[in-house]
Structures are given as structure tokens and as C-alpha cells.
Amino acid sequence: MLFPILKMLLKLWRAFFLGLNFLPIPVSRYCCICERGVLRFVPYRGGSIFMPPLARALNVVGSDVNHFECPHCGSSDRDRHLVLYLRAAGLTAGVAGARVLHFAPERNVAKLIAALQPALYIRADKFPTRAEVVELDLTHIAAEAQSFDLVIANHVLEHVDDVQSALTEIHRVLAPGGFAILQTPFSSTLTRTFEDPGIQSKSARLHAYGQEDHVRMYGRDIDTVFTSRGLVSRVNTHEVLLPQIDPMRYGVNAAEPFLLFQKPLESLDHESR
């Protein structure tokens, strides 16, 4: 009985914040995706007050759950941050004529990327639900080696059972000099990435990893984990890349870094299909 009541309360909470944006009040926030003013971004699942206690205690860096959804276009804070990071890092200019592989593509982000006219744009998911998205497994990518110049996996690798296979595949399909954007939640308290195959139920995963469908909690060793298969870190911070962006105004988490990695120019692939 508790869960249906909680779901109803969260729906009412969301409706309240959506309704605020239709009041005749001057707005102070801004969505960089739909380019509209916002009075209040809609919290995720009621906001940080409803975060699992362990995730809160471990200082998990991920979505800004208090300023999550744009009430106009539905984009999340991580969508907005990704777009801002792409522009600040100069990657949007390189998308034109490039080959892009985008896992779990966010609708609004995908539209922006498609508008940049890449030579090839593959939108992929292990369990696609839209016609334009093809079925691909990140741990066994059905593509030739060096097929892409940019791979985007925005908040995906926390869902993948075999992250090392996924990283190996990302490295394999990237052309030398190509980039991989691998945003994911991580704990700024944990010294090492934590996962346990015994944690299987939705309830256990929610409390251990912060969400029901996550399979690990990355720690401060995230850079080491993501470079373990040959990628080179190009990670940077909001403070360095986006010093002019007020996180409150744009509804993003300033603590979330840009998890950008690159395949070295001299990299050799020993595996191919």
C-alpha cells in the first residue's frame, strides 16, 4: 500500500512544479536545449530529500535531482550539461561530417546532434523502443573496428553488467584520435568502485547503488577504470570548461565533471570483426 501512495504523492509533487511555470512570474532559470525561460526545474522523484540514505552519505555526483526536468521540453539536467560541455569543449564543430555512435540517445540531445549533420549517426540501445534507434549491445558492438569518431554513452555504464567488455568495445570501434563521452554517477567518497553480484533485487540496488537498475557505484578510481582498456583521460571540470555558466540558472550539477576520453592517435587495434 505504501508504494502506490508514495507514487501518487510524487506525481502530485511533480504536477505542482510543472504548474509553477505557468504562473505570470518573472523567470530566473533557462533551458539551453529548448532555449526557454524556466521558473523552476522539476525535481526528480521528489528531489534530494527522497534520495537513498547511502547515496546521500557517499556524496554521489550525478544528476541534480532538485533541478532535473525542463517543464517545457522535458530535457534532464544531464542532457543540458552534456550539451553545454559539448559546446564548451569544441566538440560540436567536429560533429559535422563525423561518424557518431550514440547509446541510449536522449531525444532532445539526438535532435541537436542530427542538426549538426554528421556523416553517420547511429542511435543505439540494447532494448530500443523507438523506430530510429537500432539494437546494439555495448559489450558486443556489431560494427567494424575504427568505425566511429565519437561515441556517446551518457549515464549508461552504470547499467552495464560487464563494464570492461564495454570499454574494450568502445576503444575498438573508435578511430584513432576519436572521443568517448562516458558520463556516469560516481561517489566522491568511495576510494574504489563498488559492485557485488549478490545485489540483485531492485530494492537492494536502489539502496546500494542509488537506483534500481544500476549495477555498481563508481568511486574516485573512475578515471582508472575508464582508461583501463586503452582510452586516455581528457576529463575536465565545470569550473574550467563552463566558468560563465551559473549552475542554478541552467539547472545543472557543477560537481559533475565532463567525463571525456580519447583513443590515442598511435593506438593499434588487435581485435576486429
What does this structure look like?
With 273 residues, the chain is α/β, with parallel strands linked by helices. The protein starts with a helix and ends in an 11-residue tail after the last strand. A hairpin with a 4-residue loop joins β1 (29-31) and β2 (36-38). It has helices at 2-20, 53-57, 77-88, 91-95, 107-115, 163-173, 202-209, 222-226, 238-241, 247-250; strands spanning 29-31, 36-38, 60-61, 99-103, 120-125, 134-135, 148-153, 174-181, 186-187, 232-233, 260-262. It has 10 helices and 11 strands. The protein is globular and about 55 Å long. The strands form 3 sheets. It has a 7-stranded mixed β-sheet with strand order 6-5-4-7-8-11-10. It has a two-stranded antiparallel sheet with strand order 1-2. The longest helix has 19 residues, at 2-20. 30% of the residues lie in helices and 15% in strands.
Features:
273 residues, alpha/beta, 7-stranded mixed beta sheet, 10 helices, 11 strands
SSE order and pairing:
Blueprint: H1 2-20, E1 29-31, E2 36-38, H2 53-57, E3 60-61, H3 77-88, H4 91-95, E4 99-103, H5 107-115, E5 120-125, E6 134-135, E7 148-153, H6 163-173, E8 174-181, E9 186-187, H7 202-209, H8 222-226, E10 232-233, H9 238-241, H10 247-250, E11 260-262
Parallel strand pairs: 4-5, 4-7, 5-6, 7-8
Antiparallel strand pairs: 1-2, 3-9, 8-11, 10-11
